[in-house]
Design a protein that fits this description.
Number of strands: 5
Number of helices: 20
Order of helices and strands: HHHHHHHHHHHHHHHHHEHEHEHEE
Helix content: 55-70%
Structural class: alpha/beta
Largest sheet: 5 strands, mixed
Distance between the termini: 59 Å
Radius of gyration: 25 Å
Shape: globular
Length: 504
């Protein structure tokens, strides 16, 4: 079967990204390996984010699922801790391995749908995308979500080119693993369904038993998530699926924010090229029923359409679009393929260099902030100051004869539990459904004296007086870094817990 391709619009060749040899496979392999090494170094030395510290608690006792997300990120962290220890590198090891696998999968997908040149450009551009660069270090549910979305797309591309129906089994397996990663991966199934139904040439697959077997396999693999929800009053489904259409009516005020985030996290030149390339794919799909173009367009459209709708009602977090960033890199490569060789080289080099510079600045800033001003919202601030802060809290605990530490947020719980591992139990008094996977707390422990610590914005005194008979303020303490206060915390000595010491 002849491969489906997009027309190159008259261009005779696709220029190498940076110079005459930079686009060769050897150079590309070297770039992927170098990126993985850099990410490993950053992962080892950068502090954990609040979410990572929280997900580490999942890794302590892997379960069928959790309140916030399906279980894969917890399983991934547990594997990394087993290999590299309970360290920042161990917790993030899965992200580094993913950053080695992902470019290979992306290259193969683009190569079999279009050609090797488009594939090489796509990988270069993906390596330069700041969102994917950060995702190669910071491990969240997006890490396995992007990986298994990409693997499902690769298997579907192999199916499209080979016409071997057995590839549906692989599509189903990777889709199921994606559903174990993040609920967002439901849109991968929607993309496949649209690709089959809306392109007449693909409807033949509806008569293949392998398609239905693959769908069944995906369901079976994802079954632990459904079982966990069944046993916990569908709490995770309600938490995540309740976001659609929320807000005070239709508004356009979140759309510029979404667009600006995309410009920054894809990097400006890549973002423009990606939108252009997506337009090419959509036009070819509509006008020519081009199956390769349709594969690309339908792979992006459902998720993009949903979050554009969501942005008409509420804020869309920039990372929610992460699964389609590799496909957008292919779109950007297609846009480059429409240019003359000289223009390709200039635009492509600018895109890659600017993206790598932005990604590099983010890495440097995460390791040692370039600018630190108290009172501004900087996502990297949550990565700093926890080691010294945890030591101060533990000293206060010891001085007050406290046995354990109480909190009222998952962020403080996760960070203190990581930095004070094996020294003192850290227990969040509220939102206990987050921790049902952990061993049941000893009542004797809870009956012991404790200190409470969390950010002043939670104003926890009223909560503490309902949960404890004795509540003594110990003052406020700041988490600081390089002399700059990052967050203010209240500390209390608490004793005499009531029967409702732990609760919603």
């Amino acid at each position: 079967m002849q491969r489906a391709r997009l027309s190159l619009g008259g261009a005779t060749d696709i220029a190498s990204p940076v110079g005459s040899h930079a686009g060769t496979p050897i150079a590309l392999i070297g770039a992927v390996a170098l990126a993985a090494v850099v990410r490993a170094l950053v992962a080892q030395h950068a502090g954990l984010t609040d979410d990572e510290a929280y997900y580490r608690l999942w890794a302590l006792a892997p379960a069928m699922s959790y309140l916030d997300h399906p279980p894969m990120v917890g399983w991934m962290m547990a594997s990394g801790r087993w290999i590299a220890g309970d360290t920042a590198l161990g917790i993030r090891l899965g992200g580094i391995l993913t950053s080695l696998i992902g470019p290979i999968v992306l290259w193969r997908t683009a190569a079999i749908l279009f050609d090797r040149h488009v594939a090489q450009w796509a990988v270069w551009l993906a390596l330069a995308m700041p969102l994917l660069a950060v995702g190669g270090v910071i491990v969240t549910p997006d890490t396995p979500s992007v990986l298994f979305w990409g693997l499902a797309a690769w298997a579907a591309a192999e199916l499209h080119v080979s016409r071997n129906a057995n590839w549906w089994i692989a599509v189903g397996a990777f889709s199921g693993l994606g559903l174990l990663s993040k609920y967002t991966n439901l849109f991968a199934g929607a993309a496949i369904a649209l690709w089959i139904v809306l392109l007449p040439a693909n409807r033949v697959w509806l008569r293949c038993w392998q398609l239905w077997a693959g769908g069944t396999l995906a369901f079976v693999i994802a079954l632990p998530v459904a079982i966990w929800n069944w046993h916990h009053d569908w709490a995770s489904f309600a938490k995540q699926f309740g976001r659609a259409g929320v807000g005070g009516g239709i508004t356009a005020r979140f759309l510029p924010e979404l667009g600006g985030a995309f410009l920054g996290l894809a990097s400006p030149v890549i973002a423009v090229l990606a939108v252009w390339g997506l337009g090419i794919a959509v036009r070819r799909t509509i006008e020519k029923q081009d199956p390769a173009a349709g594969f690309l367009a339908f792979g992006i459209a459902p998720l993009l359409a949903y979050f554009l709708f969501h942005a008409l009602h509420d804020r869309v977090q920039p990372n929610w679009l992460a699964p389609v960033y590799p496909a957008l890199a292919i779109c950007a490569a297609l846009a480059l393929s429409m240019m003359r060789p000289h223009a390709q080289r200039r635009a492509g080099s600018a895109a890659v260099v600017i993206g790598l510079l932005v990604s590099g600045l983010i890495y440097v800033h995460a390791l040692r902030p370039i600018v630190m001003l108290s009172g501004i919202k900087d996502p990297t601030f949550q990565m700093h100051g926890w080691t010294a802060f945890a030591e101060d809290i533990d000293a206060m605990r010891t001085a007050n004869g406290a046995v354990w530490i109480a909190t009222s947020s998952y962020a403080t719980t996760g960070q203190l539990a990581f930095h004070l591992a094996n020294r003192a139990p850290v227990v969040q008094l509220t939102e206990r459904l987050r921790y049902v996977h952990l061993p049941k707390l000893d009542r004797q422990l809870l009956g012991s004296d404790a200190i409470y610590v969390d950010q002043t914005r939670y104003r926890a005194e009223a909560l503490l007086r309902r949960r404890f008979r004795s509540v003594t303020p110990l003052g406020r303490i700041s988490r600081s870094y390089l002399g700059v206060p990052l967050a203010s915390f209240e500390v209390y000595r608490v004793a005499g817990p009531t029967t409702a010491v732990l609760g919603p």
